[in-house]
């Protein structure tokens, strides 16, 4: 049961973070980078949360991470106001490279399939 609870909490935090980043954060490093929240992993005691983000523009990834880290206290305060939790976690932002990896693997598979068709 606790596992289902953590899944619901993580999803609720993810939704609120996405809304906060889109609507409330005024930092141009974050606004210009087209940031989306892909996953949130919260510890069982709700003290810490890893937030995985995806940034559309490659050259602005580091700036977006710095902007989010600079805004982390504001984000924590807003999440505490929006979600009724016993503890509001401290957020650590990390880049999610799974989308890029998936696109790379898709290109590799297409190339292999193309070579296989050319050899037949």
Task: State the gist of this model.
By secondary structure, this protein is of the alpha+beta class. Helix content is 57%, strand content 18%.
Q: What key attributes describe this structure?
A:
5 helices, 18% strand, Ribosome-binding factor A, GMP Synthetase, Chain A, domain 3, 120 residues, alpha+beta
Binned strand content: 15-25%
End-to-end gap: 54 Å
Number of helices: 5
> Major sheet: size, sense and barrel closure?
3 strands, mixed
The CATH homology group name: K homology (KH) domain
Mean pLDDT: 88
Helix content: 55-70%
Oligomeric description of these chains: single chain
Element string (H = helix, E = strand): HHEEHHEH
What is the CATH topology descriptor? GMP Synthetase, Chain A, domain 3
* Rough outline: elongated
The poorly predicted ranges are none
Structural category is alpha+beta
Return the domain count: 1
How many whole angstroms does the radius of gyration measure?
Answer: 18 Å
Layout of secondary structure:
Layout: H1 2-23, H2 28-31, E1 35-42, E2 48-55, H3 61-70, H4 72-82, E3 90-95, H5 98-119
Parallel strand pairs: 2-3
Antiparallel strand pairs: 1-2
Helix pairs in contact: 1-4
């Amino acid at each position: 049961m606790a596992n289902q609870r953590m899944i619901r909490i993580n999803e609720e935090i993810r939704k609120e973070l996405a809304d906060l980043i889109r609507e409330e954060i005024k930092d141009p490093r974050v606004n210009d980078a087209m940031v989306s929240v892909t996953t949130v992993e919260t510890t069982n005691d709700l003290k810490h949360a890893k937030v995985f983000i995806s940034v559309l523009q490659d050259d602005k990834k580091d700036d977006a991470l710095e902007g989010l880290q600079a805004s982390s206290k504001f984000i924590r305060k807003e999440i505490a106001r929006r979600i009724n939790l016993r503890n509001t976690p401290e957020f650590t932002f990390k880049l999610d490279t799974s989308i890029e990896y998936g696109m790379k693997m898709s290109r590799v598979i297409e190339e292999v399939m193309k070579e296989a068709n050319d050899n037949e």
